[in-house]
Specification:
This protein is mostly helical and 189 residues long. It has a two-stranded antiparallel ribbon with strand order 1-2. It contains nine helices and two strands, in the order ααββααααααα. Helix 8 crosses helix 9. The chain folds into three domains: 3-75, Multidrug-efflux Transporter Regulator, Chain: A, Domain 2 (Orthogonal Bundle), CATH 1.10.1660.10; 84-138, no CATH class; 146-189, no CATH class. Helix content is 59%, strand content 2%.
Length: 189
């Protein structure tokens, strides 16, 4: 099947597919269709299955091309691959967390979030936590208690920081602090 026919077939499931996109996937080494003597690309069923997998990973599972390219296990049937993506755009972070743009903007208005160019996995986890509380009917105004608790905890962590020699110990101290606070909250419920 030539490239034009392949695009038409793929567009049934992924309307965003174009000839340019398939050429780009080939240039990036993600697909390798055979060529006729005249140089025309010839896509076989295995090529189409691979392209469908790539498109699914990109558009439904939100993997970047870089992640797909660097993790060939993603193509194995039933394979579970744990990929930690270092950086997300705002759109990707919100999509992964389920936090709406309106709620994100509310968090910014209440100074609970800051706009950034890139977001980390920790940001996504925090957005996920906010999305959970929003789903319970809370609003950004209700979250101001988090900020006040954080400010007080940060003060305590400054004291801890003054009593440790190695900065790597700070993460251990924060985990222990979080455990203690969580246990007090659980006891009171």
């Amino acid at each position: 099947m030539n490239i034009g026919e392949t695009v038409k077939k793929l567009q049934k499931d992924f309307p965003s597919v174009t000839i340019s996109r398939l050429r780009f996937l080939e240039k990036e080494g993600l697909i390798a269709p055979t060529r006729s003597k005249g140089g025309t690309r010839n896509f076989k069923d295995k090529d189409i299955k691979r392209i469908l997998k790539i498109l699914d990973l990109q558009e439904n599972q939100f993997y970047t091309l870089k992640a797909i390219k660097n993790n060939p296990d993603l193509f194995k049937s039933g394979a579970k691959v744990n990929i930690i993506i270092q950086d997300y755009s705002l759109h990707e972070a919100l999509k992964r967390s389920g936090l709406s743009i309106a709620h994100y903007e509310d968090l910014i208005d209440y100074q609970l979030e800051n706009k950034k160019d890139l977001y980390t996995q920790d940001d996504v986890r925090r957005f996920l936590a906010f999305a959970y509380f929003y789903s319970l009917g809370f609003t950004a105004k209700n979250f101001s208690i988090f900020k006040s608790m954080s400010d007080r905890g940060a003060g305590f962590m400054e004291l801890v920081k003054n009593n440790i020699d190695d900065d790597s110990e700070l993460n251990i101290a924060i985990e222990n602090f979080t455990s203690i606070i969580g246990s007090f909250i659980s006891e009171d419920l």
